[in-house]
Protein: Purple acid phosphatase N-terminal domain-containing protein
Organism: Lolium multiflorum
Amino acid sequence: MASGSTHARHLYHHCLLQLLLLLLPCQQFASHLVDGGGIPTTLDGPFTPVTRAFDRSLRQGSADVPLSDPRLAPRARPPCPEQITLAASAEPTSLWVSWVTGRAQVGTHLTPLDPAAVRSEVWYGERAGHHLRVATGSAEVYSQLYPYPGLLNYTSGVIHHVRLVNLTPSTRYYYRCGDSSLPEGGLSDERSFRTLPAPAPDAYPRRVAVVGDLGLTGNSTSTVDHLAKNDPSLILMVGDMAYANQYLTTGGTGVSCFSCSFPDAPIRESYQPRWDGWAR
Ligand SMILES: *[C@@H]1O[C@H](CO)[C@@H](O)[C@H](O)[C@H]1NC(C)=O
Ligand SMILES: *[C@@H]1O[C@H](CO)[C@@H](O)[C@H](O)[C@H]1NC(C)=O
């Protein structure tokens, strides 16, 4: 079926990922910008709210980068994890880690990957190189199947989710994720994150960045770089993220108006591999 529900489910998972905690590289080079230049922190307030007039000259649109762009190429060779993403959970003592293993497939008569065949583990600790604790989670795949001649089906890589709990607030953790039972390459390189502070009158995220409609366009990278330079403690991503539904199932070039460009399409198609460029 042209499965609205599996598509929605995938979108839901990406929405979960929208509360991205800072990725390591951003925090590393941002640490010397703290409070000096750029956008003030919440702790420097309170401020009178500032409203900027909408600048139409900034709304020129930006075309999707093709999947052949090196920035969207797979970063890891299976079975190594890729698209590793952090998301805030209910409190500063917990955090979601998500990633993908295996390759998505597009074509005919596909056999989905088996999510039970690979473990979902996060090894972590408070000292670099010392990952003394392990948390396990769950894995799934989703498929987008179209019963129309000429349209291709899609089945995803294995999508893993692990929730870390009982973390200490305001603390840096070092972690690797993946499957430690594999003989080689099952775990990612070491990465790190810092947990949010425990809520208190003088302890809260110093800068919260909000971004929407990020896409995978010629301007997404400069937007993300701009966010990172301002050293946010938390990024709230409100979507949209990848415009997979501006494409035919056969890929090609995305269009701004699907029904205008493809009036004969039997259904609104989408090219799910656009999602797979996310967080690479
Ligand atoms: C935005 O993208 C367009 C191409 O789509 C490019 O010409 C322009 O330089 C980009 N601007 C920035 C700031 O990256
Ligand atoms: C896609 O999957 C559907 C449902 O299983 C099937 O009817 C259809 O033939 C498949 N399409 C291709 C191109 O394999």
Residues 62-63, 218-219, 222 surround 2-acetamido-2-deoxy-beta-D-glucopyranose (ligand 1) (CB under 6 Å). Residues 3-25+66-278 form a domain with the Immunoglobulin-like fold (CATH 2.60.40.380).
